[in-house]
Amino acid sequence: MNFFEHQERAFKKTRLLFGIFAITILLLICGIYGIISLVLCSSTEAPIQFQPKLFLAVSIGVLLIVSLGSIFKVIKLRTGGGAVAEALGGIRVPTDSQDPQLRTLLNVVEEMAIASGITVPPVYLIEQDSINAFAAGYTLDSAVIGITRGALQQLNRSELQGVVAHEFSHILNGDMRLNIRLIGLLHGLLIISLIGRRILFSVNQRRYYSSSGKRGDSALPLLVGLLLSIVGWLGVLGGRLIKAAISRQREFLADASAVQFTRNPHGIGNALRKIAHITAGSRIQHPESEQFSHLFFATGVTASWLQLLATHPPLIERIKRVDPIGSSENVTLSETSSAPGTTVEAQLNPLATFSPPGWTQEVGTILPEHLENSKTLIADLPKEVAALSRTLNGAQALIIHTLLHHTDSQLASIPKEIEVEEDINHAFIKIRTLLSDSPVPYLERVLPLIEIALGTLSSMPQDDKERFLGIVKDISALDGQISLFEYMLHRMFQNHFSKHSLGHKHFPKRKTLEAIHTLLSLFDLHGSHEHKGIGYRKARESFYPELPDSLIAPPKDVLTLLDSSLTILEGLPPKGKRKLLSAVEVIIHQDTSVSQTELELFRTIGATLQCPVPLLKISTAT
Prior knowledge:
- The structure is a single chain.
- By secondary structure, the chain is mostly helical.
- Among the domains are: 3-80 and 178-241, no CATH class; 82-170 and 250-347, Zincin-like.
- Helices cover 62% and strands 2% of the residues.
- The chain has 25 helices and four strands.
- It has helices at residues 3-44, 52-77, 81-87, 100-116, 149-154, 157-172, 175-209, 219-262, 265-277, 315-322, 344-347, 349-352, 368-380, 383-388, 392-407, 422-436, 442-457, 462-476, 484-497, 509-525, 534-543, 558-569, 574-588, 596-608, 618-621; strands at residues 91-92, 123-126, 133-136, 144-148.
- Mean pLDDT is 80; it is low at 327-357.
């Protein structure tokens, strides 16, 4: 199962989730309607009968309360995974930290991010003795990795890499957005129960302060509060059953993906064994751990008396699936496991023996060769450049250098018309000198460096991000013209620095086809090949026969046209994005020669569409 199939599966699960949630809401409405009907009939001594107007009023009220509660929670968390990490008491790890344990963790996360083609996510440390981790966020750009102090202290690098690979699987497979929506929906259901508890509390307060002769008047409100609490709790119980059912299967898939990414079943297998052995296990001792329990690497809350509510499969079963040879060794668990499931090879055999025919097939995957490419690239970079990219001034200087390099690669310093702090200019000069002496070709390292820099800049306040985005725009307009590559970089920065919306707008088919026609035409017109239109026609014949035969006329305002087209195309479903990237790849491969510029441009388009392209080499990509 590839990236797009995982995304499509997550999309279908979201629809299924909303369907089951709708049924839960309907049952909740019926329960509350029954309570109110019972109260009204008992007070008027009228016979119980169905009242359409009352049912409608209850339905509207419940839908309003649950919807507002869910939307409030999702909006609160849409700022990114940092909101989840901070809610659990997490502290952001500085990207330039020199603490040996933290540096190892940051290096592992950095290697995995560059290998997969996403921005290096911020890392948060949870001060808990247990071994656990999580990935959270609403988009790839807003993802974070959280990990406990116990994991840092008790896992070696191989085991840490297995855990981080598991979390990257959740990031790449579209699980994060589904997780946030689950949290929002469950919070909406919880509101009903909280209202019932509030009524009970208010009644008890009045009973305490009132005379004993008037306490009998509180019997009815007390009953209403109690019944509302029970009905609301049953709604929450139903929601947790949904959460557990969805979560358990995804954990098996993430474990299998971690083995595929690292080609080392012992890494994640031994991490799971250590959880089984230590006293603290994987428990997260925090008031908010329950609502985020399905995000964790392993069970973060006390095991439920009802196995149906468990968000994670039993440890021994997970170990048997990822590392069957050693699964019975060194593990003593009191719990009984079900029959062993399929092994990693059986679960992910199509990917384990994968020989990709093209770049699009590798989108959203991490293979061991990608990790090796990432490690080699980072090792070949000047250490000072890598260190600078992990500081705020250095990260800004690096991005400015990347943009100016495409305008004038001989610039000695940042032009005076671009107003930046002196420290940033000093960092720019140092980066320019160091990169000019590096043996690694500039274009081969530009996106990985930007992925490190963007991860660093994610800690900037939003106002500073907006200011820096303005600087990026000014640089792009310096020479009065902009290349397609410069524009795509700018678009990637804009997506990263802008506030994240709750979702992309979906446009009519006609507008979508117009946007596809525009993007493919511009890509062909601005390509490095001599014969314009040949690649476009090949892409059209293979993927979009409904498009016009010819390219669009070269537009005067390319940027505005690209902006409007990409805004539409970002809302494509996973299958639509796969089709579009495949068409772009056909245009690139219309002749036998493919440049590093075209590969990096393809990676940039993928990043813009939230389809990360791993770190490929021209020799293996063509």
